[in-house]
Every structure is written in structure tokens, then in C-alpha cells.
Amino acid sequence: MKAPERYYDFQKDISGCGIFGVIHKKRGLIPGEMPISAMACMHDRGNGLGGGFAAYGIYPDHADQYCFHMMCDDDSAIENSEKMLRAYFDLHFFEPIPTRRTPAIPNPPMFNRYFVTVPEKPVNEFAELAEEDYIVAVVMKINTTIPGAFVVSSGKNMGAFKGVGFPEDIADFFRLEEYKAYIWTGHNRFPTNTPGWWGGAHPFTILNWSIVHNGEISSYGINRRYLCEHDYLCTMMTDTEVVAYELDMLIRKHGLSWEMAAKCFAPPFWDEIEKMNPENKELYTTLRATYGPGMLNGPFAILVADNTRLMGLNDRIKLRPLLVAEKDDMIFMSSEESAVREVCPELDRVWMPKAGEPVIVDLED
Amino acid sequence: MTAKRKKKTLTAKGTYYKQFNEKIRALVKEGVTDFVIKECNGQRYIATALEGNLRFDVHGVPGQDLAAFMRGPYVRIHNNAQDGVGNTMDEGRIVIEGLAGDVIGYAMRGGEIFIQGDVGYRVGIHMKAYLDHQPKIVIGGKAGDFLGEYMAGGIILLLGMFSGKPDAPVAGRSLGTGMHGGVIYVRGEVPEGQLGPGLHAQPCDSEDLKVIEELAKDYANELKLDSKEIMSENFVKIRPFSHRPYANLYVPC
Q1: How close, in Å, is residue B61 to chain A by CA atoms?
Q2: Per residue in B138-153, is it b (16+ CB within 10 Å) or e — as a string?
Q3: For the ranges A167-176, A305-314, B125-134, B244-253, which has the lowest average pLDDT?
Q4: C-alpha angle with apex A119: A117 to A125, nearest 5 degrees?
Q5: Pair type for strands A30-31 and A90-96
Q6: Beta carbons of A44 and B44 less than 8 Å apart
Q7: Over A64-105, what HEC string results?
């Protein structure tokens, strides 16, 4: 077959996703404009099919309650999810998540937030579970049994805001300039092989965990089956979701350190393990043997956060860009340096971390 | 050649890359030769696919694919650069006064890229040469993994001198993986384990040193460094074992 005439001469979007994160080590509150401007600077890394942000420290008045950000397609989804939240939790306060109409975001779903705690003596099928497992179980139940209702985030003093659109338009829709947080992450999506729908935008979250990801997780199938065996059910139809649940399982449930969880995601090569001292050799061999199905194969640069930490990690051959920068008490992690310079022109230090080596930044308190 | 130069200063701040590059191209057509670009931040494709005797002084951090497919111009970045600088460039010179990201000089076919600091992963991947078109990359700092991967021609000179990573090896793992032409010179030693398969590091002979010295002089001159200091250490060269190491990979001949 002959190639069409001037087959090379066409317009196309050349892109990858874009990620940005910032943490203030002394819990200084960073206005929403910062992550919004940084993401807008990387506008062309996405194509308008997904944008989102995670923010920590935004609900200080309800800091002890779990905040469920709910995304619902219609009134019956709202009614049914609310019924379920009331059935499983003590509900302290709820309200619509403030949004504004913007021409860039047509036909958005509806968003509400519910501040809840686990009842002292719950009477239901999850009654035996520890508190955080109880939360996870209800999240899974809502996502899998209530049509049109999805939990966008379920942590304390944090929330995720995401949808279909460029990140700056999603921020406009959610009025994110009205929030202040000590950790922000942001994402600009260029979906490659899964649908560009509202639930598929990043961040993905569970409890306090959130993740934004540039790349694709080719091991999604095996990761998903592995998580399914541990009662984590994937419902967002895209690869990155597995990372949120793996973080919860590896770090919270299995008690691994963040460093070790990062080494499960991006393990050292066998030839590197071969050269290690006996102690490390045994450690990394065991880690690979135990968590093989949790390994993330494929290109990734990810930013992971919870209420006290921000972590950046690349796949072990660094198939996606990631840069770290410091300015006083703030640490930035970004796909591009320009995004950081956009919001903080003068930086103390800029570097690109080594593939497979996590960069972990803690709050100082 | 003393062709008349025409200078123009542009401020990139807040301008989308498309409009900004359209403006540059229009000015080139009008005869502007020397551009000073101020407050550049993230604009992609600066100087991409431009030809001839032009000069760009870029202040700020330019975006991806700076000077891609470029044939001839001189580009100086007074700050750090991002990924994909000099992608498939043909001719000209790029000088980066800071560090640079991944895939610098991807499939480069001619010209020079001089970087003062560290570079990311896969720098010089797929570089190639033909007759007198010999692309050259000089890296003042250290390099990430896969430097010179699939390299088919040209020269990479890795100095490891001006690095922000004191503990890192001069180059990451899989150095020169799949390389079947060209040469990588490294100042000092390279741990054998960093090399990709089918490669070895050998001492440089006098011919090599002549090439390195000339390149180092050029490099030092551009970045106001001391070329004697650069030459004060031994160099090793990395080349494939044989002329065509992968000739028998699929179809034995």
C-alpha cells in the first residue's frame, strides 16, 4: 500500500502528562495560585482531557474528620451515596464543593463534601475492621455499588479536585485560588490508552494518600489483580489508580517504609542486587520475591503525598522527566524547571534525581 | 564574512510559544540576525528548524526541543535548559551555561552542543555522522544513564568536572548501550560496570588527545573555562569492539 500524499505533514499534539508538587516544610500555607500557575506553564503537556490537584491542610476546622469528596453524575447518585455515608458514618457536616460556571468546563458532574467519623460501635458488615480499613471498605463499596457515584478523596484535612479539562480550567471551576495548603500536587493529563473521563483524571487517592503520575503503568493488569486479592477494587478505568492503593497496602497495612515501598515500585536491577553486600542482597531479593506483583512496570514519574510528606519517584530507567528544586522552606518537584521558575524565579538548588531513587521531603514538625 | 548584522531584543514572558516563534521567524525573514530573548520561561521550540548565520542569546529557562532540526545558528542559554535540546540538529552551536535535561542531542547529525553542568538521561542517543558532518557534545558535569545509547557516529566528551552531584559516578549505567559507531571520551576513569554490553574503555592515543584538546579549547573558550585544567587529567575512550557489532544480530552474513 502506498502512503498517502504528504503523509508526514499533519498537525498533531505532541505531549506527555505534566506534574508539579510543592511542600512547605514548616506548614506555611501556599495559596492555590502557585500550583495553578505552575500547571498552566505546562499547559501543552496535556490535551484538555484531565487536570487535577491535591491539597493538604485545607480543612483545619474539621482536621479530625475524614472528608469525602464525592463526584456524582445525577441526583439519584447523590441521594444514594449520601444514604450510604449516613448509614456507615457519623456525619458532622456536609456541603456542595464550591464551583463556578466556566465555559471551559461543560457539563460537569456534581460535587459534594462530607465530613465524617467512624461510629463507636458500627453495626454492619465492616464492624470488625480497624478504623482506616473501615474507611477503605466504604470507599470501595460506594465506588462499586452506587451507579454514577465516585469517591474522589477520603482523607483528613486534605482533598482532591479533578476533572476533564486543562488543570487551570479545573482550578477555575473548583475556585482553587480560594484555598491555601502546605502541600499541593497538580496534574495535567494526556490520556494515552484509557478514557479521558472525570474519574480518570489525577490525583488518585485513598485515605490521606494521593498520587499524580506522568507515564503509563504497563503492569496495571497484574497490579490490579494483586490488589483485588487484598480487597482493593479498581473502578477508575485507568492505570494510576493502582499506585494509590498499593501505597496504602504497602505502607499503612504492611508497615513498609516509604523508601522500601518506592523500591517495590522501582526495584533495583538483578545485576545491581548481585553486587550488593549480603544484607542488602537478601533484603532486595526478598522484596522482589514478595512484592513482584506490586512492581510498577513502564515509564513513570510520580508524586506521592500524605499529610506530612511529599515524595517524587521515577521508574528505574527514567523514561519520564522529573526535577527537584529548593527555595528556603519550600521544595518543588516538577516535570519541567520552567514551571517552578514561573512561581519561584530564584531557586537555591535545582537537580534531577536518579532513576528509581525516591526523593522524600518531610514536614519539620 | 562580514555580512551586516541586525539585532533585536524580544521579551518572551507571557507569550505562547506558537506566537513567539512565529514572531521570530517573521523577523528572520525581515533580515534580523541576532536575537536577545529575555524572560524566556518554558516556551518550546525556540530556534527550531531555523537555518543560516543567526544568533540567539536566551535568558531564562527555554522549553522542550530547543533548536531541534536547526541548521546553522548559534544559540546560547544563559541559564539551565530542559529536555530535547538540539533534537536532530544538523549544524550550528548550542552553549548551555547551566545544566540540561534528558535526551540532549537526540539523533544529532552535525554541529556542537556544549553544556557546562550536569545532564540527564539518554544524552546523545542515536547520534550519527556522515563524512564531515561530525556532531559533538561536550558535558562539563556528569551524565545520567544511557549516555550515547545506539550511537552511530560523532563525539561525546564527558568531563565530570562541574557537577552538582559529588557522589555520583561520572556517567550512569548502560553507558553507550547499543553503540556501533562514534566515540565517547571520558575524563578520568569509568568504572567498567557502567558500560553497556560489547564496549570497553581504552586509553587514548595521541590522535585522540589531539581531537580532545581541540574540542576542549573550543569548549573552554565558549564557557570561559581553563582548557589546560581540563586537559590535566587522563582520558579514556569508549568504542564498540568491532566495526559492526550488531551486523549478525538478525541475519548472519
Answers
A1: 6
A2: bbbbbbbbbbbbbbbb
A3: B244-253
A4: 115
A5: unpaired
A6: yes
A7: CCEEEEEEECCHHHHHHHHHHHHHHCEEEEEEECCCCCCCCC
| pTM to 2 decimal places | 0.95
Residues in chain A: 365
Closest residue by Cα to residue B153 from B173, B175, B137 = B137
Domain boundaries, chain B: 98-240
Rg (CA), chain B: 18
| Mutation for A interface: B43, B58, B64, most A CBs within 10 A | B64
Fold for domain B98-240?
A: Pectate Lyase C-like (2.160.20)
More confident residue, A256 or B200: A256
Whole-angstrom distance, CA of residue B50 vs CA of residue A33: 36
**Chain A residues closer than 8 Å to B165 by CB:** 351
- Cβ neighbours around B85 below 10 Å, total: 32
Q: Which residues contact A235 (CB under 8 A, 6 or more apart)?
A: A143, A144, A150, A199, A241
B148 Cβ contact list (under 8 Å, min separation 6): B123, B124, B125, B127, B156, B175, B176, B179, B182, B184, B238
Give yes or no for A42 touching B (CB within 8 A).
yes
The CA distance from A175 to B200, in Å, is: 58
Contact (CB<8Å) A337/B165: no
Nearest of A335, A72, A329, A32 to residue A187 by alpha carbon: A335
Distance from CA of A274 to the nearest CA of B (A): 12
Does A17 qualify as catalytic in the annotation?
Answer: yes
Cross-chain Cβ contact A350/B64 below 8 Å: no
Name the grid cell of A45.
Answer: 503537556
Q: In this structure, are residues B70 and B50 in contact, taking their beta carbons and an 8 Å threshold?
A: yes
pLDDT at residue A333, rounded to an integer:
98
- Using an 8 Å CB-CB cutoff, list chain A residues near B41: 41, 338, 341-342
Give the per-residue pLDDT at A14.
59
A355 → closest Cβ in B17, B62, B145: B145
Give CA–CA dist B206/A259, Å, rounded. Answer: 48
Mean local confidence (pLDDT), A326-336: 98
For residue A352, give the nearest of B44, B60, B101 by CB distance: B101
Q: Which three cell numbers stand for residue B154?
A: 560523532
- Chain B residues near any Cβ of chain A (below 8 Å): 17, 41-42, 44, 60-64, 80, 82-83, 99, 101-102, 118, 120-121, 144-146, 164-165, 168, 172, 193
Query: Cα A151 to chain center, whole Å?
Result: 13
Domains annotated on chain A, with CATH? 18-249+298-362 (3.60.20.10)
Q: Given an 8 Å threshold on Cβ–Cβ distance, is A342 in contact with B145?
A: no
Residue B1: pLDDT over 60: no
pLDDT tens-digit series, residues A34-60 = 999 999 999 999 999 999 999 999 999
A336 near B CB under 8 A: yes
